Amino acid sequence: MRKHQRAYLCGDMPVYDTGIAPAVLMHEKYEYKGMKPMKKRDLVTDEKLLDTSEKTDQPVRWYRKLWVRVVAGSLALILLVSGVIYYLLPDPSYAVMRQDDETKDMLREQTEAIMSLGINPLDLIKQVKEAQNLQSNLTQAYDTAVTSIQNQQYDKAIESVNYLMENLNDTEDEETKDQLEMTLAELYFAAGDYEQADTISTRIIDKAEDTNGYYSFIRGIARIQKEDYEAGILDLKNAVEAGYEEKALCDTQIALASYYVGNYEEVISYGNSALEAGIDVENEMVLQYLLSFSYMQNGDFAKTVEYLDALIAKKEDSEYYYYRGVAKLALQEYEEAYQDFDKAVELGNDTTMCHYNRGICAIALGDGETGKEELQLVIDRGDEPDLTESAKELLESIQQA
Q: How many CB atoms sit inside 10 A of residue 60's CB?
């Protein structure tokens, strides 16, 4: 069941028909099989990086502020160059009109002051050009990041955001860099690179910037995807403790990870907590499935039947009928168990185990002929050695009775 359950819960990225959204910052929803999408968030502007919506009353976006600084710096350089040229090449008529010593001394001092700075006008012009090129490249990187995210091209978006980070060298932009790093954590998660999502989320958490538990949640889910279940569970519990608002989603994932490590008490506790909080139908079915098996592992077959009843009411599935038959067989409800095994076979669960159990129910109900037919089928197949041996012993007992 474990292998089946992983396939059901953890499909490849980006799937998300019923998925975890990893990356909560996406404009377009993407999904992952069997997991609830994370709450959609806008891309950050001043507080969030890549918001493309038009809002006239919001502060100027960080990258526009950067352009203002770049352009202002360029203009300052141009003015400085103009000043140098003016002082070095004064207008002849101006010089003729102002021949007094005071004026000559002033011009000489100004020229010497400029030259003492070691400024080369051609170098300044080159710097202006480089600043303009940088502005153009950053604008293009920003636009590429936004478009890539909207088109779910996460690897391309990651490349653009990394370029933005590498070219923000102004110490005043530390907050912006932090925002970009947060975006990268989400993008790496969306791209299925859980190792990078884990690493960057860890940096964010270590800098005490995970104020609402969100990046503990991201890291927790990333670690579960890496099959580091215990660490993932701890992160999700910390996320809830820090105030992450999607508690039901955290409880769902804790229940999932707890099932993988065989902690059925935790599955029951967190699974029921998530169901009580109210979740979407897909996650509800996943939890009911996990809970039915956890109660079965704990020997509570009545609870197993209860959750399988709820699942069958939503969807007829051979596996649901089979396991409900097992639970009812354990409860000695042979008639209903036989009907469930019969339905499981009808829906495609034509396993040797299913026929063996159906034979046991038939014998318990006094239908020896049907029971013998089922047990003989088990023997003829011979694909389950333990069941084959057990079927032979039962047939011998029936014949001797």
A: 12
Task: Give the Cβ contact number of residue 345 at 10 Å.
Answer: 17
Q: Is the pLDDT of residue 398 over 60?
A: yes
Q: Of 50-64, 175-189, 236-250, 337-351, where does mean pLDDT reach its minimum?
A: 50-64
pLDDT tens readout for residues 149-160 = 888 898 998 998
Encode pLDDT of 211-223 as tens digits.
899 999 999 999 9
Sorting pLDDT into bands at 50, 70 and 90, what band is 70? very low
Q: Report pLDDT for 6.
A: 27
Q: Pick from 16, 12, 10: which is nearest to 30 by CA?
A: 16
Q: Is the bond into 121 cis (omega within 30 degrees of 0)?
A: no
